[in-house]
Amino acid sequence: MPPANLSHRRTHNLLLISKLLSLRDTTSPLTVLLDSLEQPAAPLMREYIRRTKLSKIHVTFVSFETLKRPCGVDSFVVARRKRSSDVAREVANAYSSPSAGGPQLLTYHRDMPSPSGLPSYSPSPLSILTYLATTIFTLHPLSQVLVQKAACDRSLAAPVFGLEEQQDGLIVGQLEKTKGQESVDGIVLEMEHRRRSGRYVVERYILPPAMRYSPQQAKEVVTLLDDHPLYRRPEESGEGVEDEITSTFELRLTDRQRREREGVVLPYFDAQQGNGPGEGGRILYDMGEEDDFDDEEDEI
Amino acid sequence: MIMAPQPPIPSTLAPFVTSIPQTSLTVVSTVLGATSNWLVLRFLFAALNPATGRTTDLVPNALEDDGVHRKVVLVSFLRSWDFWRSEAKRLGLDLARLLNEGRFAFIDGLSELFDLPGAAPPPAPAALQIARTLPVRSPQLQVPQIPTSPKRSSGDDIKRLHIRGHGVTALDSLQKEILTIVENVRTQGRTDRTGHQKTEILLVIDQPDFLLAAMGTGQGIGASEMQDWLMGLEQVRRKDLRKDPDDEREDLTVFPEEQAVHSTILTLSADSPLLHNASAWSQQQVTPLETEHTNFVVGLCHRARMVIQLRNLDTGVARDVSGVLRTSRGGAWEEEQSKDGEKWEEKEVLYFIQRDAGVRVFERGE
């Protein structure tokens, strides 16, 4: 995918994430959240629930992991030791209308190896999920993304955290809470959204911690990662100034000048619309008055 | 080296050890060189000794100012009753007395786990009478069982777990045994005291990963079965217990509509081969045990509110440092909790266990 320009991405992708997070318009029927111990998906789940509450959507929470009902959930199904058909029935019962089938949100811990008892020829659960998903969010903590970026900027190997460190006794990495004066809380969402047309959109966003905005806020809180003050490159901020060179000469073009300049047919233009490569190295040359054509030169 | 005696719970550790919120799961991960016994004892001390964290004088009174009656059930799979009792005594905690008072219960998952019930108890080794300080991981150290001993003698009140059957049924029977003890402990407090006090039971399970390693997927116990089992221990009022045979239903009527235990603390091994060989970033051939253990530990950390990681000093062995303690947020951490408990933050400290079993906790370079 070509690097689209930032303002274009800002308009389109922020609209997209807003739609995705509020589960509107059947934008994404199956969203998979890939989390890890470094950045659990619970804050993002709470953000999803908060938004569905604002738009008054029924939320059914199917839990494999917790017995505690999350705040704001309409119906809560514990799937512990149940057959999948039983769970499906309970979920269906949770809805009042029989034709239920809203968008689905699913969390997968990407730092857990796939279980050992699987048949060796079938794909891993993660492969199946990422194949079926229409949107995949991979979650990272902002502090670690910043540290990794700082290393990449200096052409160093990006550091790894937690289980990836492969150090004896380490399960969860340590989070750096502040950088300078600014706190670096927040979740980086690495999104891959597959459109119905088959095209895909890749973008990185940042979700600020829930303390920074009110639960009733309807305005979008997610921003692009590239817009984050700590992530943005310092030289990019000077880009706008560069356009305005102060000089005594008028360097810019008027509209008329620009139109005329676009109308000029360049000499090699003719060669580009030739009939394929067969024409080869023909030289286009018009004799001028002062040219002295030498017959004998051809004979050599 | 003589050091000043330390308070039972170092002030740095107090916020992690004392204020454990309701329905929370705390995971303590250990490695071979940095065991969690001392930390488990601090958890016991904090729960059973009400004066912790507030004043320094030890008031032998179970009642706090908030009227909460705190009790502890300790399920130990790797260490015996004598070990815990003698270690707690060094800390000033008389577990045997608390056991008689009904404020503490010990469940021995080590001595007779694989014995058939009803079989004759194994003869106590003669050397055991002399050995009081016990090695940590020796399986021969059973609680002495003298048939003629009076009712209240050491080890007689101890519930011992037995594995019956395979897979989920074996775990279900264990669950039932443990929950019966939990309910016994709860009701004992009710008869002793006025009755309408709030009782909080802290369930401490020491190294349940032993069960996973000893049974394994061959016997139908894998990481997900173990996690379901632990979930079942945390709460009984779930409907799925009612699906089981009728005798379970009778138990359920005893249980009120409340959680079986207030909060749970688990200690788990996190040694490198058990954790990293099978992790998603490793490319090598793995054994089923490595995969299951990684799944079990990482899955529990995802469910935990707090993960306390103990490990060896990265730079090698030091005479005055026993290990490194790092507290991290688990997957079930909630932002709301951090608002009232502003003191709680992720940190990494060093600790040193002194000769008198006191623990000094300090920052690097302190």
Q: Can you offer a commentary on this structure?
A:
The complex is a heterodimer of chains A (300) and B (366). Chain A has 300 residues and is an alpha/beta fold. Chain A has a domain at 6-58 and 95-240: 3-Layer(aba) Sandwich (Rossmann fold). Helix content of chain A is 28%, strand content 16%. Chain A is built from nine helices and ten strands. A six-stranded mixed beta sheet of chain A has the order 4-1-5-8-9-10, sandwiched between helices. Residues 237-242 of chain A have low confidence and may be disordered. By secondary structure, chain B is of the alpha/beta class. Chain B has a single domain (14-119, 154-362), classed as 3-Layer(aba) Sandwich (Rossmann fold), CATH 3.40.50.300. In chain B, helix 7 (223-234) runs parallel beside helix 10. The interface between A and B is large, with 39 and 59 residues.
Task: Give me a quick take on this structure.
The complex is a heterodimer of chains A (300) and B (366). With 300 residues, chain A is α/β, with parallel strands linked by helices.
